[in-house]
């Protein structure tokens, strides 16, 4: 397959990585995987967004954090066609410097937002279960949309290194042509990249262990809410384990190979890393499972809106993750120690 030539205004310095794909077959395959994720993710996230706004009315049901995850996933899906296009034309990234930086900025931002709000939900469940009766600061904060705005602004600040003028599209540590400013920028970007995965994952594991231990010590009558909390944090663990951890490990290996200047090995590791990054994009397909576990009201509203009739009644009467069924037409949303019964919104 012929590769689109590099723009004339780009450097011809062979030490500069122009993001050219090291293997055409690999990136052709990845392009079709990205297209598949887009084809599945676009209608799914549009339907979720519709339910949150018009059927579930997230602002009334105190689900602002969940809605922010929906927004992050939708923005991620919007970037996928460009990724598929570049892979089809033999590039790991766009050869256009401005477009390359914009894409990296969007991917970093949406990834960080998804992780931040998923972890916030897990911390909320942790306080509701392990420290029941104490003042839950997350529960207080999540009622205000200003908190979500602050999180987005903080993520914007942390993502700025991908947009600085000296940032070369695909370069990172280990490039011989790097200046000191390049090195500082790359170092900060890598700290943000690994920090936004490792720190939340440690918090997530801690919350999961504490909640499971609490479940084991509780009596039978108190286990329903605890099982729901376990389902929430375990669903987040699944998202992390499938989407974020593999690509993070591959990134660490890639940096190690570059620092040791193993050029032939780098071509292989780069393909593995990009493949795992494509895998990480299925985050936008897995997050709706988290929504269902977090809030049965959303699950019921979604099922009532989009599921066919022969599945609707069965799904509406099943409370995911609890192993119990209900015979009423209402759904129970658990928040802290208070349970509120919410009717399914009419069509």
UniProtKB/TrEMBL annotation:
Belongs to the G-protein coupled receptor 1 family. Residues 44-291 form the G-protein coupled receptors family 1 profile domain. One of its GO terms (cellular component) is membrane. This is G-protein coupled receptors family 1 profile domain-containing protein. Keywords: G-protein coupled receptor, Membrane, Receptor, Transducer, Transmembrane, Transmembrane helix. It comes from the Eukaryota. The keyword Transmembrane helix applies. It is found in: Membrane.
């Amino acid at each position: 397959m012929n590769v689109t030539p590099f723009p004339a205004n780009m450097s011809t310095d062979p030490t500069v990585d122009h993001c050219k794909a090291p293997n055409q077959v690999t990136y052709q395959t990845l392009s079709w995987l990205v297209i598949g994720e887009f084809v599945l993710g676009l209608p799914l996230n549009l339907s979720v967004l519709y339910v949150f706004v018009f059927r579930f009315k997230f602002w009334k049901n105190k689900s602002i954090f969940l809605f922010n995850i929906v927004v992050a996933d939708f923005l991620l899906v919007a970037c996928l066609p460009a990724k598929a296009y570049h892979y089809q034309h033999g590039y790991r990234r766009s050869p256009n410097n401005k477009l390359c930086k914009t894409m990296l900025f969007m991917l970093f931002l949406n990834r960080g937002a998804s992780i931040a709000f998923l972890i916030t939900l897990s911390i909320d469940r942790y306080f509701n279960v392990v420290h029941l009766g104490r003042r839950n600061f997350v529960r207080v904060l999540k009622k205000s949309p200003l908190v979500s705005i602050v999180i987005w602004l903080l993520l914007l600040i942390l993502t700025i290194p991908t947009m600085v003028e000296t940032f070369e599209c695909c370069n990172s540590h280990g490039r011989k042509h790097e200046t000191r400013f390049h090195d500082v920028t790359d170092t900060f970007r890598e700290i943000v990249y690994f920090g936004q995965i490792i720190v939340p994952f440690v918090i997530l594991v801690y919350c999961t262990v504490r909640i499971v231990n609490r479940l084991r010590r509780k009596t039978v009558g108190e286990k329903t809410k605890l099982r729901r909390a376990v389902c929430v944090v375990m669903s987040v663990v699944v998202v992390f384990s499938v989407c974020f951890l593999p690509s993070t490990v591959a990134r660490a290996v890639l940096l190690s190979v570059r620092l040791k200047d193993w050029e032939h090995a780098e071509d292989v590791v780069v393909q593995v890393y990009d493949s795992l990054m494509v895998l990480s994009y299925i985050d936008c397909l897995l997050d709706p499972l988290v929504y269902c576990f977090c809030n049965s009201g959303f699950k019921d509203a979604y099922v009532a809106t989009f599921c066919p009739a022969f599945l609707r009644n069965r799904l509406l009467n099943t409370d995911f993750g609890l192993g119990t069924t209900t015979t009423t037409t209402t759904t129970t949303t658990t928040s802290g120690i208070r349970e509120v019964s919410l009717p399914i919104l009419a069509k």
